[in-house]
Amino acid sequence: MSEQHHHHTPADWDARYSSSDRIWSGRPNSSLVDEVSDLAPGRALDVGCGEGADAVWLARQGWQVSALDPSSVALERARQAAAEAGVDISWWLGQLRDTDLPLESFDLVSSFYAPLPIEHEPIERLKSLVAPGGTLLIVHHVDFPGTHADRTGNPAVMLSPALAAEILSGDNAWTLRVNETRERAGKGGPGTFHGDDYVVKAVRSA
Ligand SMILES: C[S@@+](CC[C@H](N)C(=O)[O-])C[C@H]1O[C@@H](n2cnc3c(N)ncnc32)[C@H](O)[C@@H]1O
Questions:
Q1: What is the rounded CA–CA span in Å between residue 66 and residue 152?
Q2: Is any ligand 1 atom within 6 A of the Cβ of residue 44?
Q3: Does the residue 170 lie in any domain?
């Protein structure tokens, strides 16, 4: 998996997903289950949903789920997973920056391991989607390098949870609730070659 940090464009992600029937484990991320289980279900948005395991899990917990990913291959798999689970999810094909998502509408916006280029101001975008009183949950691998190169070799700096925490803690409208690294459950399965999670959770003032 030495190529793991070189999947930058939607086409790159499509190619990566197409390289196998399924990349990820199909189980929800443990940090999602840990952080969301005690929230009252409302409207949720999963940014970079991949094959949809988190979105399906949220829907099963009673959330009304929207899920976004730029890879049509991944979204098709996610659709199938939702159909198999018998849950309804609103799918959005695109990158975080260019989708026409409703602002201030989601009680939970989560993003797990999505490479979001800083130059597109992803934290501002994520914040703008959260409803008053809602929760923003950003998780990445602790060993996430922060700088990725696309196919042409152009480097792009990605949003890290540490940077997200820094920005959120300087914003009066937000309360940082979690800012820590955490052992990741389920290591050793598909897609789990990375180390522990860096978890950032913040709540917007009501
Ligand atoms: C490492 S995968 C994680 C997938 C899923 N969240 C999970 O935990 O299994 C990262 C996902 O982010 C998506 N992605 C890449 N660039 C993105 C962007 N600009 N906006 C939203 N999602 C993006 C990729 O297509 C990919 O499905």
A1: 32
A2: no
A3: yes
pTM across the whole model: 0.89
Distance from residue 50's CA to the centre of ligand 1 (Å): 5
Pocket test for ligand 1, best of 30, 98, 113 (most atoms within 8 A of CB): 113
- Quote the domain boundaries for residue 43: 10-204
| Residue 1 forms part of a structural domain | no
Give the β-pairing of 197-204 and 174-182: antiparallel
Q: pLDDT tens digit string along 94-113?
A: 999 988 999 999 999 999 99
Examine residue 185 and state whether it is found in any structural domain, yes or no. yes
Q: Total structural domains in the chain? A: 1
DSSP states along 126-145: HHHHEEEEEEEEEEEETT--
Q: Select the more confidently predicted residue: 21 or 32.
A: 32
In a domain, 5, yes or no: no
Bridge pairing between strands 130-141 and 197-204? antiparallel
pLDDT, tens only, 69-102 = 999 999 999 999 999 999 999 999 999 998 899 9
